[in-house]
Design goal:
The longest helix has 18 residues. This protein has an eight-stranded parallel barrel, surrounded by nine helices. The protein is globular. The chain is of the alpha/beta class and 330 residues long. The protein has twelve helices and nine strands.
Amino acid sequence: MNSLKLSALDLVHITKGSNTKDAIERSVHAAQHIESLGYTRLWFAEHHNMPYIASSATAVLIGHIAGQTKTLRVGSGGIMLPNHAPLTVAEQFGTLEAMYPNRIDLGLGRAPGTDQLTAMALRRNNLNTSFYFKDDVQALLNYFENENPMEKVRAFPGEGQQVPLYILGSSTDSAYLAAELGLPYAFAAHFAPAMLGQASEIYRKNFKPSTYLQEPYFIACVNIVAAESNEEAQFLSTSLFNMFAGIITNSRKPLSPPTEKVVYDGIPEIENAVNGMTACTFIGDKETIRAELLAFAEEFKVDELMTTSSIFDLEKKLKSYSITAEAILK
């Protein structure tokens, strides 16, 4: 497992008592910190109509973070492709690649990243776009590769830059597609762990080598809360669990300070739902984190671990990143 890579997914949470500017500044600090620790990449997720998530304009955010770092790969985890015309995405990420050569990733998802009404607003009432996900991915690949002057529609900037594409998923459908196209595959186990094992097996079993990738490459995104002690980590993790409870009960709030007990203590229906969504959550000190993460990576044949860190206090969040790096990379 010495070859296991470590990366991060940042949801750009707006914390209690802060604003969007503060959230983005936290992301800059986190990016610079994990870059110094040897993390491979930092991705941002596209979400819409969520008042306490500041990553809706994902490409803009990627450019800002790439400009504040030097070597860290920065990308999308992901761009929800049905919300966008492939040509627009090719132009945006072609521009980013021109500005920050060999540092930009384009992770692609099929879900709307929001509710259905907002999806309709994004897609101009055309909710059938998700059915053309494969076609749109292939169109993107063509825009980046095409150098045929006879083509009537071409992506400038973008053409010839070969921005690396990643297929994202939380079910088995995306695993089949990533395998068929010979692209790397990232699974969202941080909130939808149920099909992780099936997706990993399907992807590896059906993978077809391509000009982009000769062997399967599997990324698993998980929640990690690391601290100096197991007790402190458990305490810090209540912010994460309370956030998921808000999602389940549709009472979303800013990421809040940890609590002595989770807010849904004694409510089994919410507890079961939260536990289901957060089954791939790793909490503890360096030794605990190392043992559990390495066992997880071996079980699911993970090439790269991507961590979310829903920790309220910035210094504690950065410390969690450091402990995780010590556990996995050293």
